[in-house]
Amino acid sequence: MGYPTIFATGTLKYDNEKAWSGYTLFPSARGALLIDMNGNEVQRWAGLDGFPNKLLPGGYVLGNSGRRKSKYAYQDQLDLIQVDWDGNIVWKFDHTEEICDDGRTKTWQARQHHDYQREGSSVGYYAPGAEPKVDNGNTLLLVHENVRNRDITDKLLIDDKIIEVDWAGNILWSWRASDHFDELGFDETAKNVLYRNPSVHGEAGGDWMHINSMSTLGPNHWYDEGDERFHPDNIIFDARNANILGIIDKKTGNLVWRLGPDFNESEATRKLGWIIGQHHLHMIPKGLPGEGNLLVFDNGGYGGYGAVNPGSPTGNNNALRDYSRVLEFNPVTLEIVWQYTPLEAGFLLFTDASKFYSSYISSAQRLPNGNTLITEGSDGHLIEVTPEHEIVWEYINPYFSNVAGNFYNNMIYRAYRVPYEWVPQLEVPNEESIEPIDVETFRVPGSPIGKDKGKTTVVEGIDPNHNPRTFEDKDDEDEDINFCVASVKKSDLENIN
C-alpha cells in the first residue's frame, strides 16, 4: 500500500459514549508520552525510552535511560528504571551482566528487551482489583544472554532469558530458552535451517527465538477448574522469529503448553490458521471481558524456519502473509472467540487485506467495557474497537524519527490505556467526542475543495447518485459476488487466514 507524504495526525475520531476513556501511554521520538482521549499531551518524560513504557498507579512510569550501542549487541537496554511524575528515578535495575564493549571499561547493564512485569499485575495493564506495586515487590524482566549451544547451531546465539529480581535487584529466578530446545517442536527441516542461519545479526549473534512478550498468567478459571498448566505463576511468552507461543511452568522451567512452530500439526491449529511474527501474547486478566482467553497481535509478514519456497529460498522466515490479525482464542480448544482482521476492518477484497497490516511490533489490550485497544505499530496507528468491530477512537502518532538518515518513521512499539485515577496529579479532563472528518472534502489550507465545483455530466440511463464501486447485494450474506476471474461467496471470505 502506498502512503501519502502528508496526512492527519493526533486523534482522528473519538466517541466518548462507546470508548473506554482514560490516558494512553506510548514510547515516542520525544520520550514517554501520555495523552488524553482528545490527543492532548498531558505529560511527557523527555528522552525516556520505552521497550515498552508502562504506567503505574500514582503517576509513575517505567522505561529505559538508553540503549546499548555496540556491534556486539542487538536491542539491549542499559537498564530498567521507574521514575515519578517529576522525572526522579525511584527504582533502577541494571545488574544482569557486566559488559566491556570498549575493551577497557566494565559497566553493569540490564540487557532488558521487549518486556517486563512488576508484581501485582499479571500483564502490566489495568484490570479491576489488580495493581502493579510501586514501592516494593519483584519484577520479571526479559533479557539477553550470549550463549553457544551446538545442538542448535555452531554460531554465537543471542539467547532469550527471563529473570525475576527483588526490589533490591537480587536475581531470584531465571529461565533460558536454549536450555529447552528439545521442547520447542522444531522438525528436522527447521532444525537444519536454524543450524545454518539462526537469524544472525552480525557479530552480535543469532537472534534465533526473538521472544518479544512475557508475563505471568495470573488468576484464571482454567486453573480454578483443575488445569495445572495454567497456574497463576506460570509464564506465557511468544517467540517472533520462531512462530512459537508457549507457557513455562514456573517451578520446573519446562514448557507445559505450546502452539507452533508448525500450524499444520492438527485440525485445531489448521482452523486457527498460521500465527506469524506475532507480538504481545497474553492471557486476558481476571475481571475483564474474555478473561482466561489468549489475546495476541498476529502480525503476519514473515517468520519461522522450514522448507524453502519462492518467498524464502533459504528456509529462513519461510512463513509469509501480507496482513495482520488480532486474535482472541480459547487456550484449550484453540477456537477463535473474537478477532479483528482485514475483513472486520471493512476491506472486502484480498487485494486490500494489507490495509490492516503491521509486520513488526504492535499489541492488543482488552479494556473493561469489552473494547480492544489495538496498536498497529509500524504506522504509529492506535485504534479502539468495540466487540462489533466499530472504531470508536483513532489516533496517529505525530512524531517521527530519522532512520538511516533518510527515512522517517512514527512507529509505536506498544501502547497502554490506563484509568484516570492512576494519575492523581491531573484533574479528570472534560473530553468531547471528535467526529471524523469527511475525507472527500478535507483539504490542506490553500487547496481548493474540488467536490461538486466543476461541471457534472449525467450519463444517459444512469442514476447520477449511484456509486459504481458499491455492491448492490452487500446485505445478502449468501449472494454470489461475480468477478471477472472468479466467483466467490462472501461467506468464503470469512475464512481467510
Question: How would you characterize this protein structure?
Answer:
- It contains 4 helices and 33 strands.
- The protein is mainly beta.
- The chain has a 5-stranded antiparallel sheet, with no helix packed on it. The chain has a 4-stranded antiparallel sheet with strand order 4-3-2-31, with no helix packed on it.
- Strand 16 and strand 17 form a beta hairpin.
- The C terminus is likely disordered.
- This is Arylsulfotransferase (ASST).
Task: Enumerate the spans where pLDDT stays under 50 for 5 or more consecutive residues.
Answer: 473-497
User: Helix/strand/pairing class, anyone?
Assistant: mainly beta
Rounded to the nearest angstrom, the distance between the terminal CA atoms is 19 Å
- Beta strand %: 25-35%
* General form: globular
Number of domain modules? 1
Q: Which CATH architecture would you pick?
A: 7 Propeller
Region (Disordered): 453-476
Organism: Pseudobutyrivibrio ruminis DSM 9787
Protein name: Arylsulfotransferase (ASST)
Pfam family, one: Arylsulfotrans
Tags for this model:
Methylamine Dehydrogenase, Chain H; 497 residues; disordered C terminus; 4-stranded antiparallel sheet; 34% strand; 33 strands; single chain; mainly beta
Describe the protein's topology.
Elements: E1 10-14, E2 23-28, E3 31-35, E4 41-46, E5 49-56, E6 60-64, E7 80-83, E8 89-93, E9 97-99, E10 107-109, E11 112-118, E12 139-147, E13 157-165, E14 171-176, H1 188-196, E15 211-216, H2 221-224, E16 235-239, E17 244-248, E18 255-259, H3 267-272, E19 279-283, E20 294-298, E21 301-305, E22 316-321, E23 325-329, E24 336-340, E25 363-366, E26 372-376, E27 381-385, E28 391-396, E29 401-403, E30 407-409, E31 416-418, E32 480-482, E33 487-489, H4 490-493
Antiparallel strand pairs: 1-28, 2-3, 2-31, 3-4, 5-6, 6-7, 7-8, 9-10, 11-12, 12-13, 13-14, 15-16, 16-17, 17-18, 19-20, 20-23, 21-22, 23-24, 25-26, 26-27, 27-28, 29-30, 32-33
